[in-house]
Design a protein that fits this description.
Elements (H helix, E strand, L loop, with lengths): L7 H18 L5 H36 L17
Length: about 80
Amino acid sequence: MADNKGNIFKRFAKRVADVFAELKRVTWPTGEKLAKTAAVVLLVIVFFAVYLTLIGNGGRWILDKVGFYDIVETTETTPASVG
């Protein structure tokens, strides 16, 4: 509750100063490390894109072979006329 005391602009300036102080303590990756990590992420994305596409197409192929998408003809029957 002590943080709620004082001018709102002073509190905002304190928060911004805290953010910049924290960013100075961050260990940033080197360019080489960043490139390697980005390459791994892209490879994983491509792998799962291909994997999920194969699963989807394989499932559709199986359902097509089983006849899941076949159109079933139905005949309509009318009740016998009374009278």
